[in-house]
Design brief:
The chain is an alpha+beta fold. The chain has helices at residues 2-6, 22-32, 38-50, 63-71, 112-122, 132-141, 151-154, 160-166, 212-219, 236-242, 256-264; strands spanning 53-57, 75-82, 85-93, 142-150, 170-176, 179-187. The strands form two sheets. A three-stranded antiparallel sheet has the order 1-3-2. The relative contact order is 0.10.
Amino acid sequence: MKQQKALTLKTLTKSNVWEVEENDIFRMWETAEKESDFKDNRNHYIDVIRSAFEIEEIKIDKPEVIKKYEARDFKVGNIHFDDNDNKKWGIKKRAINRITDLTYENIHHISAAKLIEVLDRNFGGGWDSLSQSIQDIIESGFDISTTTLPKDRLHKPGGMYDKKVNDGYEVLEITKGLWVEAIFAKAKPKVENHHKHDDDNDSMNNGFGDNYDEDLEDENPSENSYDDDDDDDFDEDKLTEESYRTTFETEEDLNLEAEDVADDDY
């Protein structure tokens, strides 16, 4: 909350603008308009605000019109542009309901529970059905891991599911016939300069910077990172669950293990 109170239009960026609410915008605007360079920076301020808020100018200033905007969850207030130009704005925080609403700027300002809600609303094909760009955005703000197991194996007491949930992960289950894909998500600790984006760039652009691969490698450990544990640390349950990492379409694939044994026995 201290950080929010310290924010002004001058320090507002397309990332931290997601931390403020509609009334904060009106308050910061009123303070900024008294500064000498306000007119020069006004369009920049509006561009930053629009990256996280819907803005509608209310040209008919009547109570019945205002009520219609408020019924749509807009906050209505007066915006002073200059001595001869006063406007009334309706402002509403942009909703994050779809996968395509996720950006590098807002991904750090939603909870794991909210992410699971968004994924659940848009899903069907599982984690691998997401585009690489969306996966990268999500993984810049969350630790993601997945496993695909038969239904009767997923909730085995003491298995991966229980361990992840006990470790604070939110989980989404996607049924695939007799199998279930579980997607685990846990927010990463917030750090400054979490992604190399200039504030002047379009906040809705999901493109990548020059150091994208390097950054991603540092920030997003592989979802199969459990496999990298030392041999001394593995147990039978872990080995069994990790062997299901690849989704099998039919039970016939389970014969692969027998075939491997046959190949080795000569």
